[in-house]
Write a structure and sequence with these properties.
By secondary structure, the protein is of the alpha+beta class. The protein is built from six helices and 19 strands. Among the domains are: 75 residues, no CATH class; 75 residues, Thrombin, subunit H (Beta Barrel), CATH 2.40.10.
């Protein structure tokens, strides 16, 4: 019985051999006369997988005359075995096609309430590429972009729209410490000083797709931060290729960089429906009937957002649509700015060019849903999409190429907004008074509240 390590080896004694697998010819041969190795050809778009047959034999040398090739002996070839190399490089995304200036509309709704829009893209550069098409609602893009901006500049575990990105088992102090480190990032070098908690939180931020530190989450996050804070005319990859005017690109970049998403403070006081905000916030970008206010000390509903109906920028006050009920003398507050939906007469309006670039910024890809079940063949460069013609939404489209081995390109740049023609008429005016006079009749009616109401038409008839 053996109780310790044994020097015995069970089995027959074998010679020891070195095995040389095929490598590119630049590698040295083991001895003169050894057959040259052959590199497996690189896969391509046309041939996404390269195959080869591999066999292995063993050579032995005479112990006293190792360089005498006459005394070499070779075993039978084992195998052959099939080996292959798969293309891993994704194709380039589809390019741009020109679009006309002004608003672009789908067809008017038909009898069944369906509208149609035909989305087009450039022909793939290689016949082996196929195409998937993605579509996004404007509101989905705006909400996601809002999260991208606010989680990079004002990440706050108390904000109800941010709290889901923090680990549940962290206490508030731990969450705030990690958030403060991420909010303080101003250069790429700042990532190296992040704590372990901050690095973990970074992986869960929207747009980072839970990339790990070792897989480059800091590169992805920095790209998102840069395009929300310091997008410039020189970042041509985010603008359509046909936009050659740097002044045009600069104007768009400046407007997108100015989007702040939210204002916040620690001590708002309430007098009926009027809320006085601390920190002397700049309310010049706040709009009535568009933006909302959240109060942390609201007893009625901790997640309620009150609509702002009046703004007093000089005194840093806003009037809400309802009277909040606070459980304290003051409250932490967050004012949410929906800066993507300006009215047409607003001087800060985001036009079609601005929103087209915004929809294509890094991180906003998740707002797009694939609408093609199977990729479309290279000979097909358009898709007729069916939309609900009764809605008032606007849509963006993007596309991606797929090669033979299912490598998918990045998404193309977005289309301009696609509008649906309005088919719902305004409400019928309600006449409140008719006054007869000398050769005249005075009519009075209740004003309609549709924001896009253009004019009233008056009809008359005679007996």
């Amino acid at each position: 019985m053996v109780t310790g390590a044994s020097d015995w080896k069970i089995g027959l004694a074998f010679d020891q051999y070195e095995v040389f697998l095929p490598q590119p010819p630049t590698r040295p041969r083991p001895f003169p006369g050894f057959p040259a190795a052959h590199a497996l050809p690189e896969p391509s778009l046309d041939q996404g997988i390269r195959y080869a047959q591999l066999g292995i034999s063993a050579f032995s040398k005479h112990p006293n005359r190792p360089n005498d090739q006459r005394l070499f002996s070779e075993s039978p070839i084992e195998g052959p075995r099939e080996v292959f190399k798969v293309r891993r490089q994704p194709p380039d995304p589809p390019g741009d096609i020109p679009y006309p200036d002004g608003d672009i509309f789908a067809t008017r709704a038909d009898y069944h309430g369906r509208s149609f829009y035909t989305y087009q893209w450039p022909a793939p550069p290689n016949s082996s590429l196929k195409t998937h098409v993605m579509r996004a609602l404007d509101d989905a893009v705006f909400k996601l972009d809002w999260l991208m901006r606010t989680t990079r500049t004002a990440l706050d575990p108390k904000n109800p729209r941010h709290e889901k990105y923090f680990l549940e088992n962290w206490d508030l102090n731990r969450k705030q410490t990690a958030a403060s480190q991420l909010n303080a990032i101003k250069s790429f070098g700042d990532y190296s000083s992040l704590s372990s908690d901050a690095r973990t939180l970074l992986e869960y931020l929207p747009g980072n797709n839970k990339k790990t530190w070792n897989s480059g989450v800091q590169n992805r996050d920095w790209e998102i931060r840069q395009t929300r804070i310091s997008l410039s005319a020189s970042d041509t990859q985010y603008f359509p290729n046909v936009w050659n005017d740097p002044i045009r690109r600069k104007g768009i970049a400046n407007k997108l960089n100015a989007i702040i998403g939210l204002l916040s403070g620690e001590a708002a006081t309430v007098d009926q429906a009027i809320v006085a905000l601390d920190n002397t916030p700049d309310l010049s970008r706040v709009r009535s009937y568009r933006d909302t206010l959240w109060l942390a000390a609201d007893q009625a509903n901790a997640n309620r957002h009150y609509r702002i109906i009046e703004v007093d920028a000089g005194n840093h006050r806003v009037t809400l649509d309802k009277v909040p009920s606070l459980g304290a003398s003051s409250s932490k507050w967050v004012l949410y700015l929906n800066e993507y939906n300006f009215s047409k007469n607003d001087p800060l309006v985001l036009n079609n060019d601005d929103l087209r670039v915004l929809a294509g910024l890094p991180g906003n890809e998740d707002a797009f849903t694939q609408i093609t079940i199977e990729p479309l063949h290279s000979g097909i460069c358009e898709l007729k999409d069916t939309l609900d013609g009764k809605l008032r939404n606007r849509y963006f489209y993007r596309s991606a190429y797929v090669d033979r081995v299912q490598n998918r390109s990045g998404l193309s740049r977005a289309t301009p907004q696609i509008y649906l023609p309005k088919v719902t008429p305004p409400r019928t005016p309600v006449v409140t008074k008719v006054l007869g006079g000398d050769r005249q009749i005075t009519l009075r009616w209740v004003s309609n509240r549709e924001p896009d109401l253009r004019e009233y038409w008056i009809y008359r008839t005679e007996n």
